[in-house]
Design goal:
heterodimer; A: mainly alpha; Hypothetical protein af1432; 64% helix; 0% strand; globular; B: alpha+beta; Molybdopterin biosynthesis moea protein, domain 2; two-stranded antiparallel sheet; 4 strands; 39% helix; elongated
Chain lengths: 287, 113
């Protein structure tokens, strides 16, 4: 019997649950009586997380005047919900930091995801969406299913590589031919397993076919466009060497003018380079 | 009228307040932009502001750039092989990629000199 996307996730024990730090921060934030100090204390429990979060909040992505040197200050500037989202982003990067796979260069993978995250956040800012950090996380996680496929794919990965490199199929199509599902399906199952909100689950699940998003079409459209812009400029790669098919309706539904394009690319380049160093450390320095 | 940040020039007058993303007032309406104020908007990464100047028109800047090599053009065409370029936005992004590659060629040529 053929394995399903769900089987792939269940069969990968190293990624079954999110780091405890995220759980802890999430639980403290979920308690209505929690103060900013209690939330800050939960974050500071993990010194690596604290350092990365502060570097991120001080990056050009936020452009706050002056240095933000404490988590309490970061909370007052970015907001509690936003801090939770940035904590999730940071924890996921940490969780996958030491994972190596053969099919893809993991540094290039994270550069691709980070560029999509920054671009999704920029698009959300231009669209005046609330809590643009949620879009950043959606962009960061959109291809997370790829890692599971590369960990669980075994000998079938050779066939996948042949379809992509020799036959020039785009990655999702090749994955469906080989496994019967693609990385968006696996990502959806992984985010469900982690108990993440439907907003993120649907963004990941529908990022290649945004018309499939029924509850949160906006985020699916934004992540779809962000990945298109990032692939067009070949900013890192999740294993995809081509630009995946683009759904023009996603752009039309956003209602932005194409005049924004040079500005988006200009800001994307700047913010992508600085956040690579802030979030990925040495991994972000090449290419 | 609405103007992209990158097209702002000193001398323009703000039609509306310019706020940062947290809602903090940066520059009030009816202020004439100076070099310093354009820099403030740049630093805060305000995407668009509203100015009163009716005479201002956005011009597409078409730079004089070296052409792509055949290999570069083939590479871009190949990477976009699955994208339907009948759509306005997709075509715009494709064109932007070509300009970007030409800009990189210009930079590489400059570095050689």
């Amino acid at each position: 019997m053929k394995a399903s996307a769900e089987d792939f996730v269940r069969g990968t024990p190293e990624i079954q649950s999110l780091p405890q730090t995220y759980d802890l921060v999430n639980k403290v934030i979920a308690k209505p009586s929690s103060s900013s100090e209690e939330i800050a204390k939960a974050v500071m429990h993990d010194s690596g997380l604290t350092t990365r979060l502060l570097r991120l909040v001080n990056s050009s992505m936020f452009a706050f005047p002056g240095q933000v040197d404490t988590i309490s200050r970061a909370i007052s500037l970015v907001g509690i919900e936003q801090l939770r989202d940035l904590t999730l982003a940071t924890c996921v990067i940490e969780m996958f930091e030491d994972i190596e796979v053969e099919f893809v260069d993991m540094q290039s993978y994270w550069r691709h995801c980070l560029a999509t995250a920054v671009c999704a956040r920029l698009l959300a800012t231009h669209c005046e969406e609330e809590n643009v950090e949620r879009y950043f996380v959606a962009g960061l996680l959109h291809d997370i299913g790829s890692i599971v496929i590369y960990l669980r794919g075994g000998r079938k990965l050779k066939r996948l590589a042949a379809l992509c490199n020799k036959d020039h199929e785009y990655l999702s199509e090749a994955e469906r031919s080989v496994f019967g599902f693609d990385h968006a399906d696996v990502g959806r199952e992984l985010l469900r397993q982690w108990g993440l909100p439907d907003f993120l689950v649907e963004a990941v699940s529908a990022h290649h076919v945004p018309s499939r998003a029924k509850r949160f079409p906006r985020v699916a459209n934004i992540v779809h466009i962000a990945e298109f812009l990032v692939e067009a400029r070949a900013m890192g790669s999740n294993g995809e060497h081509l630009v995946a098919p683009f759904c023009e309706d996603a752009w039309l539904e956003l209602g932005l003018s194409t005049d924004y394009l040079p500005l988006i690319y200009q800001d994307l380049e700047t913010q992508w380079h600085t956040t690579q160093l802030d979030l990925l450390g040495n991994a972000g320095e090449s290419g | 009228m609405r103007v992209l940040r990158t097209n702002l020039t000193p001398g323009m007058t703000l039609e509306r307040d310019a706020m940062d993303r947290t809602g903090r007032l940066l520059i009030g309406a009816e202020t004439e932009l100076t070099d310093r104020l354009v820099e403030v908007l740049e630093t805060a990464q305000i995407p668009v502001v509203y100015v009163t100047d009716k005479s201002f028109e956005e011009h597409d800047c078409v730079p004089d750039l070296p052409p792509l090599s055949r290999e570069q053009q083939r590479d871009i065409d190949g990477r976009f092989r699955h994208v339907d370029l009948h759509g306005d936005f997709a075509r715009e992004v494709f064109g932007e990629c070509i300009i970007h590659s030409r800009e990189r060629n210009a930079l590489a040529a400059e570095a050689k000199e």
